């Protein structure tokens, strides 16, 4: 039973799916049976019904504009807490820049998967493995608010439904541009592809530092 590995320099986190007849892959959080032969098990189906992946969006552009002053004030307080003077010339615009940068680094909260996959799924007579390697990934550790960066590799075995290859990179971007841990990021990418395509199997590898 394979499970995602904890983030470390050069480590790998793997979420297998559809690994063989009757096999129940492990997953983050101690759950079991999230995928069975590439399809959600009963527990996963119940969870999906309770919180549909297609409806994940917790922030809007309007929210960004409304919350920018409070974020800016928070960064001013951080500078003071560090012993700096936010009013000195070199730091006058730093709180605003830091606030807008953080909104950009976490822009995945403004997007959901259905925005990009609805018009990019194609019915094709193709059942051989599709693999996309070395997708650039940038994310923010939710425990320290510092970045971790790396590569994502995705493979899936289609059941005559294909997703545009560029959309796999967009799925990675949506989930990575949120406050994350590597294990959850790996699982979210795998679940999104599984629920969008219902393939025979999905594999996701995240390598990050």
The sequence of SSEs as H and E is EEEHHHHEEEEHEHE
The side-by-side strand order for the widest beta sheet comes to: 1-9-6-5-8
Major sheet summary line: 5 strands, mixed
Q: Globular, elongated, flat, extended or rod-shaped: what is the shape?
A: elongated
Q: Low-confidence parts lasting 5 or more residues at pLDDT below 50? A: 1-52
Span between termini: 25 Å
State Rg: 19 Å
* Tally of contiguous helical segments: 6
Question: In which range does the helix fraction lie?
Answer: 25-40%
The computed structural class is alpha+beta
What's the mean pLDDT score? 79
What fraction of the residues are assigned to beta strands by DSSP?
A: 15-25%
The total count of strands amounts to: 9
Give a structural overview.
The chain has 209 residues and is α+β, with helices and mostly antiparallel strands. It has helices at 42-50, 61-81, 94-105, 114-117, 165-176, 182-197; strands spanning 11-16, 35-36, 39-40, 121-123, 130-141, 147-157, 161-163, 179-180, 201-208. Strand 2 and strand 3 (39-40) form a beta hairpin. The longest helix has 21 residues, at 61-81. The model is unreliable at 1-52 (pLDDT under 50).
Write out key terms for the chains shown.
single chain; 209 residues; alpha+beta; five-stranded mixed β-sheet; two-stranded antiparallel sheet; 6 helices; disordered N terminus
Give the SSE map.
Elements: E1 11-16, E2 35-36, E3 39-40, H1 42-50, H2 61-81, H3 94-105, H4 114-117, E4 121-123, E5 130-141, E6 147-157, E7 161-163, H5 165-176, E8 179-180, H6 182-197, E9 201-208
Parallel strand pairs: 5-8
Antiparallel strand pairs: 1-9, 2-3, 4-7, 5-6, 6-9
């Amino acid at each position: 039973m394979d499970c995602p590995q904890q983030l470390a320099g050069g480590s790998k986190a793997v979420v297998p799916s559809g690994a063989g007849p009757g096999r129940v892959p492990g997953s983050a959080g101690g759950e079991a049976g999230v995928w069975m032969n590439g399809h959600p098990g009963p527990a996963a189906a119940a969870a999906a019904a309770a919180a549909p992946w297609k409806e994940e969006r917790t922030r809007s552009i309007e929210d960004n504009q409304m919350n920018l002053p409070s974020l800016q004030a928070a960064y001013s307080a951080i500078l003071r807490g560090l012993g700096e003077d936010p009013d000195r010339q070199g730091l006058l615009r730093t709180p605003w820049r830091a606030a807008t940068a953080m909104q950009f680094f976490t822009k995945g909260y403004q997007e959901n998967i259905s925005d990009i996959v609805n018009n990019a799924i194609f019915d094709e007579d193709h059942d051989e493995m599709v693999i996309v390697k070395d997708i650039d990934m940038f994310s923010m550790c939710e425990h320290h608010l510092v970045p971790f960066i790396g590569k994502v590799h995705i493979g899936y075995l289609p059941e005559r439904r294909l997703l545009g290859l560029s959309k796999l990179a967009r799925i990675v971007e949506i989930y990575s541009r949120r406050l994350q841990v590597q294990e959850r990021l790996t699982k979210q990418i795998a679940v999104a592809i599984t629920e969008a395509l219902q393939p025979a199997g999905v594999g996701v590898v995240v390598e990050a530092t």
